[in-house]
Structure formats: C-alpha cells, structure tokens
TrEMBL record:
GO BP annotation list: intracellular protein transport
Localisation: Cytoplasm; Membrane
Job of this protein: Acts as a GTPase-activating protein for RAB35. Together with RAB35 may be involved in regulation of insulin-induced glucose transporter SLC2A4/GLUT4 translocation to the plasma membrane in adipocytes.
A GO term, aspect molecular function: GTPase activator activity
Keywords: Cytoplasm, GTPase activation, Membrane
PANTHER family xrefs: TBC1 DOMAIN FAMILY MEMBER 13, TBC1 DOMAIN FAMILY MEMBER GTPASE-ACTIVATING PROTEIN
One GO CC annotation: membrane
Taxonomy, superkingdom: Eukaryota
Organism the protein comes from: Parnassius apollo
Pfam family, one: RabGAP-TBC
Coiled-coil parts of chain: none
Record's protein name: TBC1 domain family member 13
Domain Rab-GAP TBC: 34-330
Subunit structure: Interacts with RAB1A and RAB10; in a GTP-dependent manner.
Length: 384
C-alpha cells in the first residue's frame, strides 16, 4: 500500500470510531489531511468543535444546526420586516437607524467578498445549491442589491458629518461595483461570493459586540471553499450552514486578534507579535539583531500574518495545508508563531544582506516557497 493510501486509511479508520480519539486525530491531522474523499472537510468540522467526537450524535447535531441556520436566514434576511418608521427618525431605536447601520456593515462586506481569492475562479462561479428564497426573489432579497440601492440613501440620510468627499466616494463605489470586482449572477443562480457575503452579514448581526471586521472574509474563505468542494453531496449541500458555525467557533478563539482594546492581553495581537519577536531572538540572534538595528518591527509585516492566519501569504491549497496543522495544534495558536518564525529564518540570508527597504518588501511579499519546508522548519523550532 502506498504511503498516501495508508494515510487515507488511517483517517478513515479513526473517523469510523464510535468515539473519536481526539488526540490521535490531532496528531494525524497535524501532518496534513489528504485532499481525497472529503476528509479535510470532515476533519475540520471535528477539530473546530462543530461535530461531536461521538459518531452516534453527529446526525442529530447536523440536523439541529442546519435547521437553526435556515431560521437565521429567514428571520434576518428573507423576512426581517424592514424599516417601519420615518427615515429621518434619529432615535437610536429607530428601525431605519438599524437598517442604515446594517447597510454600512454590508457595504464593507460586499466590497471585501467581491475580491476573495482572485487567483482562482471558484468564488466567482455558481454554487450548485443556491438559497431558493433569496435567488428567486427578483433580486429583492439579495444583500448586494440592498447595498447598490442604498449607497446614496444612507450617505445622505445618516447625519454623521459625512462630507462631500465621503459621498462622492460612495457614488464612485456604486459605479465600480461591477468593474474589476466579481459580478452577481442572474435570477435563480448565486455565486459563491454571495454565499460568503450572507454568512458574514449574519455573523455581524448575531455578534453585535464585535460585528464585522475587515479580514474576516479571508478567514471564512478557505473554510467555505473546503466544505463546498466536498465529494459528499450532502456535505456540499450544507456547506454554508456548516461553514457558518465552524467560522463562528474559530472566531471565538481568534476574535481577540481583531479587537483593538485587547491588543495587549495574552490573546491580543501585540502580545502575539512580541512572542514572534522573542521566538526569532531565541532561534537566530543574528537575524533578530539585524531587524532590531534596522528598527524593522514585527508590526510592519507580521500583523497580517498572525491576524489572518497566513491566508494572504500563500496560495489557497497551501493555506489549507497550513490550517490542517493550525487546527490540529493542541496549543492553538502557538504553532502559528513557529510557522512565522520559520518563514523569517528561511530567508535569513536575504535579511542579513538586505537594507531596511528591501527587507520590509521581502517580508510583506513573502517569496513562493514549498510549504512543507516551512512546516518542517516550524516543527524543528517547536521542539527546541
């Protein structure tokens, strides 16, 4: 039996257990989940604590969660009731006030999802399972329609000192909505980016304390892609609902990266950047000294690496392979620090020979590299 087939068999065996040995699954997934037979999709659902370890409880969990998601769509998007009072009512409880605030969030989401993973055609293509209540509504229930129609309305009606510059910016945005960005599909069809837009809008509505923060689109994209290309038709059909809950669980773990007031706490982004700097110092003093001398702070390059779990630095297949290890990490997200450190150490010669400008450029546009090299180096660092 080939090594690849043996790995597939090892995953199949553990997933067939009545109660999955979570630690064994973590160890196995840490070294990469095969692309075959929808294995990654199922393993991620378990590692992200969406599916229970008990095989007998999976079906009822899925049924309950998928039903709940359908309810969210119905209550928040399909029939939310719409604004009922006067558009100029300035009361914070005004339904128009809520509508405009929602549209502000929606405008940002719409802008972000239309540019998701532009190097592949997946997000522009049609889903085989569009949401019927939305795609057969003559455009009325489509979220992007709401933004296109309301771009000028909310800019002029919301009294927040929005000047001419802001308004003209919104007008320009509405003109460019179909140029260079992904275009919406016709009645009855729905592109994958529209599905992602819906999930992010629901997430923002259901998590008002945090809402939507730019970059969340880059976190949800690889999860949705993995689920939507599953070989199992039933899992593909419910990719949206399953992805929504997996994303929600992941965000509960990394939300502190996105909340500025928590920057300094142990789970905040500044703390993570300090940990990365200490890791470089411990593993390669010469490189650390060079970066210190040049005052090349981790904020200049690693903010994006850490916040977005490296989703912007590599191609989608490589990101998915890296995330196998991150999701399987028993000390989530310690291994992320080791990966980032490995990336820096693997370009050490360039860094030692480069000036400030070339080194910033190198780290902000990390060169293409075999991802297994980086992961092996990260493991080596973690064992020191």
């Amino acid at each position: 039996m080939s090594l690849h087939k043996a790995r597939i068999k090892a995953f199949e065996d553990i997933l067939e257990q009545d109660v999955i040995d979570f630690e064994v699954l973590q160890k196995l997934a840490f070294n990469g989940v095969p692309d075959d037979k929808g294995l990654r999709s199922l393993v991620w659902r378990i590692l992200l604590h969406y599916l229970p370890k008990e095989k007998s409880a999976r079906e009822s969990t899925l049924k309950k969660k998928r039903q709940l998601y359908k309810q969210f769509i119905d209550e928040i998007i399909v029939s939310p009731g719409g604004p009922t009072d006067h558009p100029l009512n300035i009361s914070p409880d005004s339904s128009w006030c809520t509508y405009f605030k929602d549209n502000e969030v929606l405008l940002q989401i719409d802008k972000d999802v239309r540019r998701l993973c532009p190097d592949i055609s997946f997000f522009q293509s049609a889903t085989e399972f569009p949401c019927p209540e939305i795609v057969n509504s003559n455009g009325v229930k489509r979220l992007h329609k709401r933004v296109e129609q309301s771009v000028l309305k909310y800019s002029t009606l919301e009294r927040r000192g929005l000047g001419v510059a802001k308004l003209s910016n919104e007008i320009r945005r509405s003109d460019s909505i179909t140029s260079g960005d992904y275009a919406p599909l016709n009645e009855g069809c729905e592109a994958h980016w529209e599905v992602v837009e819906r999930m992010l809008f629901l997430y923002a509505k259901l998590n008002p304390g945090q809402g939507y923060v730019q970059g969340m689109n880059e976190i949800i994209g690889p999860i949705y892609h993995t689920f939507a290309i599953d070989t199992n038709k039933e899992y593909r059909q419910h990719a949206e609902a399953d992805c929504f809950f997996c994303f929600t669980n992941l965000m509960a773990e990394i939300r502190d990266f996105f909340i500025r007031t928590l920057d300094e706490t142990e789970s905040g982004i500044n703390y993570m950047m300090c940990k990365l700097s200490d890791c470089v110092k411990k593993n390669d003093r010469a490189v650390w000294d060079q970066l210190e001398r040049q005052e090349l702070r981790p904020q200049y390059y690693s903010f994006r690496w850490l916040t977005l779990l490296l989703s912007q630095e590599f191609s989608l297949p490589d990101v998915e392979r890296i995330w196998d290890s991150l999701f399987a990490d028993t000390q989530r997200f310690d291994f992320l620090i080791f990966i980032c450190c490995a990336m820096i150490l693997l370009v050490r010669q360039n860094l030692l020979n480069g000036d400030f400008a070339s080194n910033v450029k190198l780290l902000q546009n990390f060169p293409p590299m075999d991802v297994s090299l980086i992961l092996n180096k990260a493991v080596e660092i973690s064992n020191r």
